[in-house]
Amino acid sequence: MRDWELTETFDSPSGQVRWGQLGDPAGPPVVLLHGTPFSSYVWRAVARALARNHRVLVWDMPGYGASAQFDGQDVSLAAQGRVFAGLLDHWGLAEPSVVAHDFGGAVALRAHLLHGASYRRLALVDPVALAPWGSPFFRLVGDHAPVFEQLPPHLHRALVREYLGTASSPGLHPAVLDRLAEPWLGERGQAAFYRQIAQADQRYTNEIQDRYGSLDLPVLICWGEDDTWIPVARAHELAARVPTAELTLLPGAGHLVQEDTPAELTATLGDFLT
């Protein structure tokens, strides 16, 4: 349970960010972005494999994982895009490769299209990129976040675990489910869970989705064929909008591809990054 620790810190406008790196510091840099309601923990297997040939940087977005959580925190897509651009400057990375999952896809795209972040290559894994997005449950919680915040802790815990479990097609190992749920428990974590959903405004992807045709770098789109959070039809729609896109579908994987088919995803990313 404690085999994934982020030891470095970065002070961002949205609170302290915890980050870490693996592999040769002189190797070609690859940055991994997680989605919601996850953390960098979902990248652990992929990160360790890629670290054999790359400098791999991972981070927990403000409001997620081991990073800061507090009342009034701005954890919107707009804020995360700015934080990521600032973090790249902090690392001194002029043109890394970027691999982004779910919500992290929108963060990486906003940082590139709106804040001038430059990438060598961009891999998008089941990304939040095209409207409409968000499951009926996600939208229900977003519309009534103050009500859900008042749930008794045991009911909140059950809700979070059940919700996380639906991201996987074959199902999550109980220890993995425990680790993913942990940051969202307790008084601070419960408030943070509903805060990030309440701030997940579709306008932040509306602002950029008409610009995907301007992307002029190599782009890989990976998608779990069994994704019930964002249907695979969106993969084809996104690939049609990006002139340089290569599309790879992963059979047997749901939304949380890193947990469902880690070997297949790692091999696909390794080929693309090389």
UniProtKB/TrEMBL annotation:
AB hydrolase-1 domain span: 30-266
Keywords of this entry: Hydrolase
Protein name, UniProt field: Alpha/beta fold hydrolase
GO molecular function term, any single one: hydrolase activity
Keyword Hydrolase: yes
Record's keyword annotation contains Metal-binding: no
Gene3D superfamilies: alpha/beta hydrolase (3.40.50.1820)
Pfam families, sorted: Abhydrolase_6
